[in-house]
Structure formats: structure tokens, C-alpha cells
Design goal:
Elements: H1 3-12, E1 26-30, E2 33-37, E3 51-55, E4 60-62
Antiparallel strand pairs: 1-2, 2-3, 3-4
Length: 63
């Protein structure tokens, strides 16, 4: 493993992938939970009504 890859993994880690890929979403945290809201499938003015809740302790996304 390259040193740069090791440093990045130590700093950011690998988490579960988002169920819905999107661009320009809003993200907030509260009480150890990450909330992902809005955004769209492509850059610019596309939007969607999806929201997802990620619980890092058990690597689970909820919709």
C-alpha cells in the first residue's frame, strides 16, 4: 500500500456507500447521526426529494 493511500485511509476511513448517488446535497449531523438531504443526479439545477440517514456506529443507511 502506498503511503498516500495509508494516510488517506487513516484520516477518512472507508464507510458504507450511499444508496443514492447525487451531487450538491446538504449534509448535517446531530447526536452522532449524519443526515443527507436533497441534491440531484447531475451537477447544476437537478434535484431529488431523497433523504438518507447514516449511522456511523453500525454502518447503516436508512431512508
Amino acid at each position: 500500500m502506498k503511503m498516500n493511500d495509508m494516510i488517506q485511509q487513516m484520516m477518512f476511513g472507508n464507510e458504507a456507500p450511499m444508496p443514492t448517488a447525487r451531487h450538491g446535497l446538504g449534509v448535517a449531523t446531530y447526536d452522532g447521526t449524519i443526515y443527507k438531504i436533497g441534491g440531484g443526479p447531475t451537477p447544476r439545477l437537478t434535484t431529488c426529494a431523497n433523504y438518507e440517514i447514516f449511522q456511523p456506529n453500525n454502518q447503516i443507511f436508512e431512508r
